[in-house]
Write a sequence for this structure.
């Protein structure tokens, strides 16, 4: 079973509807020849309609950056998975480290959001990753495994087949300090091993594990050359069509693995 590379751009709180429309237009042009790789972008909520309108039928999927666990109700300021789906999203980020550290998303909240994404028919991109203190303390693997258990532990095979995992070490996000290809590969192999121990063989064989944290056009190829790195979740470099295109190209030229 081969895994198709998957590159997603997380625009975070950048690009209002007008700028998002312009960037989506540039991306559509820049990525017209991209093949053999799945590509997606995660604009801020308000910009989703503009991006969906530009990219529908363009082969670039749209991702929500977060969702509320409930379908609807008195949750001022929140957006549900059902709303994202209705607006044209096919994926949603769940448990991004900025949500965990700045907005108080605990493992329990992340687990509820992940189930809400599945309920809404969205494919979750579950983000996991350790802080620098945790890495220095030698607990990085245990921290990531605990995040995986809390979010995915109870899922059945069919739900698991819709999941993407993004390994984003917190110390590498927005810092310009990337995990080395070996460091990233080590954690990705651990994550795949965790999946192998709990789910039927097709789950670890097909679930894609993206790396995220200061991915750029210049380091993407060496990261993608690792056997368990199936793509990237790109922040800053996804705000520029040319650098995002170069990262997509690096992922597209990755040999398919079984
Ligand atoms: P940077 O690529 O800006 O480090 O951000 C990574 C990230 O958080 C993607 O979700």
């Amino acid at each position: 079973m081969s895994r198709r590379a998957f590159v997603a751009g997380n625009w975070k709180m950048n690009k209002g509807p007008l700028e998002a429309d312009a960037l989506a237009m540039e991306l559509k042009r820049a990525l017209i020849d991209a093949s053999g790789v799945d590509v997606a972008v995660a604009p801020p909520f308000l910009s989703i309609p503009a991006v969906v309108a530009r990219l529908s039928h363009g082969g670039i999927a749209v991702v929500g950056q977060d969702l509320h666990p409930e379908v609807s109700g008195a949750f001022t300021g929140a957006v549900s998975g059902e709303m994202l789906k209705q607006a044209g999203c096919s994926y949603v980020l769940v448990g991004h480290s900025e949500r965990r550290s700045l907005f108080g998303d605990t493992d329990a909240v992340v687990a509820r959001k992940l189930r809400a994404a599945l309920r809404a028919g969205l494919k979750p991109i579950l983000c996991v990753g350790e802080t620098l203190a945790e890495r220095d303390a030698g607990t990085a693997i245990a921290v990531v495994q605990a995040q995986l258990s809390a979010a995915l532990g109870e899922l059945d095979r069919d739900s698991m087949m819709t999941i993407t995992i993004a390994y984003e070490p917190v110390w590498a996000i927005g810092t310009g300090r990337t995990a080395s290809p070996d460091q990233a590969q080590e954690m990705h192999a651990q994550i795949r091993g965790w999946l192998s121990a709990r789910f039927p063989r097709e789950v670890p064989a097909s679930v894609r594990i993206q790396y995220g944290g200061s991915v750029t056009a210049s380091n993407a190829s060496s990261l993608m050359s690792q056997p368990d790195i199936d793509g990237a979740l790109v922040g800053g470099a996804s705000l520029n069509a040319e650098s995002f295109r170069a990262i997509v190209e690096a992922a597209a030229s990755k040999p398919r693995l079984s």
